[in-house]
Each structure stands twice: as C-alpha cells, then as structure tokens.
Amino acid sequence: MTDDTDDWAQQLRDNREEKDRFFAEHRQSPIPPGERDSFDGLDYFPPDPEYRVTASVTVHDEPEPIEMDTTEGRTVRYLRIVTFEFELDGESHELHGYRQENDDGSIFVPIRDKTTGQETYEHGRYMELEPDRELTDGDEVTLDFNLAYSPFCAFSDTFDCPLPPEENWLETTVEAGERTP
Fold first, then answer.
1. How many domains does the chain have?
2. 3-class SS of residue 85
3. Is residue 180 part of a domain?
4. pLDDT, tens digit, 9 for 90 and up, residues 37-51
5. Which of 2, 47, 138, 179 can pair with 9 through a Cys bridge, CB separation 3.0 to 4.6 Å?
6. Residue 10 falls within a domain, yes or no?
7. Element housing 60 (H / E)
8. Angstrom distance (rounded) from CA 146 to CA 51
9. How far apart are CA 11 and CA 165, in angstroms?
10. Over the stretch 15-33, which tens digit does the pLDDT of each residue have?
11. Within-domain flag for 9
12. Domain for residue 138, yes or no?
C-alpha cells in the first residue's frame, strides 16, 4: 500500500468512528433514544481502494425531473443533473447524480447493487459528492463506494427516505461502505 492509500484508509476509519459517536450520543441520531445505550457502532465493509473509482462526468444542461418513490409511499422530485461513467470489476457502469430543485448543495447518488437486501440495507444506500467547483463535461471525479451509507430510515420508521431509482441499480456487487444496520 502507498502512503496515500494508508492516509485514505485511516481517514475513512476516523470518519466511521466519528459517525458511530454521533449515532450513539447525539440528540439528532436516527437511533431511537431507548436503543442508544446498547448501540456499539455501525457494521462496515473493510476499507477497499478498489471501490474508489474515477468517473467521467456528463453534465445535463437541462436537468430532467425524476420522481423518486420513498419508503413511506410518497414521491419526491429530483433533477438528474449529472451522469457518472466508470469501471468497476472490469465492467463499465453508469450512475446518475441528483439535486432537488433550488438546491445548490451536494450531489445525491442513491444506489442499489447486488448486496442490497442481502448484506446492505434492503432499500439501497446513498453517496454524496461535494465537488469543489462546478462540474463540466469530461471532468473526472472520484466515486468512493467506501462512503456508501444507509439512510436514516434504515434505523427508525420515523424517517421517510427516497428510494434509488431503477436507473441507479448496479448489476454488480459493491462490498464497500455500510452493511445492513
């Protein structure tokens, strides 16, 4: 392993410890208050640099609206703002990134893969990208599946979460990020 990979893996472990503390102690934790004392941390796949991939960006100048179903049976409207093309396990894949209207924040990337409902949360996981500048066609970004996380609705029925649309269902196994809570 290189020093960069060692640094990345250590930073990932540190972030996971911080998230575990938040879930165990913070009043805004999705873990119900009565269960926090027995909470001993989330279950993660080991850090794996193979799941940090370089993706080519295609920006959608006129973002198409996408209606996403939620865990509570509602729909929420997002805009498909970018498409990421990348290779994983020797195969080409695409994922789409979304934002809600009038939101200039992070890029929301909900996913399902062949671990969904087996080793990971039954309704899929999320990733978020926070580019340091406006993305343009042909830009390259890192998609780090080690950062894939279960939405709050995986921990409590009080949350209503968007479900990954079918266009973001990967036909491969992504053994990275959070496992089933």
1. 1
2. strand
3. no
4. 899 999 999 999 999
5. 47
6. no
7. strand 52-69
8. 6
9. 30
10. 999 999 999 999 999 999 9
11. no
12. yes
